[in-house]
Amino acid sequence: MAPADLTSIVIVLADSGPLTRDCVEHALASDRPVEVILVDNGSDDGVPEALDRAYAADDRVRVIYNRANLGFGPAVNRGAATARGKLLLVLNPDCLIDPDTISRMAAHVGPHTGIVGALVQDAAGHIDPASRRRDPLLGRALATKLGRAGIDIGGPLPTGAEPVEVVSGAILLMPRGAFETLGGFDESFFLHCEDMDLCRRARDMGYQVLLAGDVRVLHRKGGSSRHRPVFVSRHKHRSMFLWFRRHDPAAKNPLVRAVVWLGIWAHFLLKIPGQLLRKRR
């Protein structure tokens, strides 16, 4: 029988590299009971198999092999389907949590809480703007490009729980009941924007999306996107348009929708040469 305060940690792998072992070790060092569910999206780097062997005697860790890249959201959904905990932590394999990270995030979970995020930072302590953002509506996106207030939220960082529109998908804590009520991640999103979609749907259903401003998590930027930059970028741009079409009122105008579609895919094409050059280097 699972402990009443068990948290199920779902980590999706896709050639995520050696950073994953550190991620798992930090997760298992949590000060509350956890289980770690590794969901492999057809990795070729041998890391999932190595972790499977390393933790074969630890019933807190199990590996699910998809044998193909199903996408981030679908993989999380498959891991969550096997979860036993009342809380579900979705964690990137290049993030390191502290022993008290889950406890401190869980302290902000109330009866109407759907999602709790944290401040995601790099090794130098710089906070990722994606830690707290507004929905990327067209008008806001244009304002951001022009250097005006738009998607990113400026000002002092919160010291406690702050209601926000979007938190970073690098680390999400959810009551499993809320996750199941929302139907998990929308599997139409293969990669990127699935966290923004989940936050939006949670708010639309009356759940709170909170940023735990008193929790910081190191995000070391793993290898999946660096190995396949064009592949990742293509799906990111596809997801951007999908989110726009689903949630932005401006998408109701066919002309605006067409212009946005052209702009998104033109941006994708313009980025390819630089991505390929960086990969070679």
Would you kindly provide a written description of the structure presented here, covering whatever features stand out?
The chain is an alpha/beta fold. It has helices at residues 19-28, 47-54, 72-80, 101-106, 138-145, 176-181, 194-204, 224-227, 229-247, 254-280; strands at residues 7-13, 34-40, 61-65, 87-91, 95-96, 113-121, 161-163, 171-175, 208-219. It has a five-stranded mixed sheet, with helices on both faces. Strands 5, 6, 7 and 9 form a four-stranded mixed sheet that branches. α2 links the parallel β2 and β3 (61-65).
Keywords:
single chain; 9 strands; four-stranded mixed beta sheet; globular; 281 residues; 10 helices; five-stranded mixed beta sheet
Compile the SSE list and pairings.
Elements: E1 7-13, H1 19-28, E2 34-40, H2 47-54, E3 61-65, H3 72-80, E4 87-91, E5 95-96, H4 101-106, E6 113-121, H5 138-145, E7 161-163, E8 171-175, H6 176-181, H7 194-204, E9 208-219, H8 224-227, H9 229-247, H10 254-280
Parallel strand pairs: 1-2, 1-4, 2-3, 6-9
Antiparallel strand pairs: 4-8, 5-9, 7-9
Helix pairs in contact: 9-10
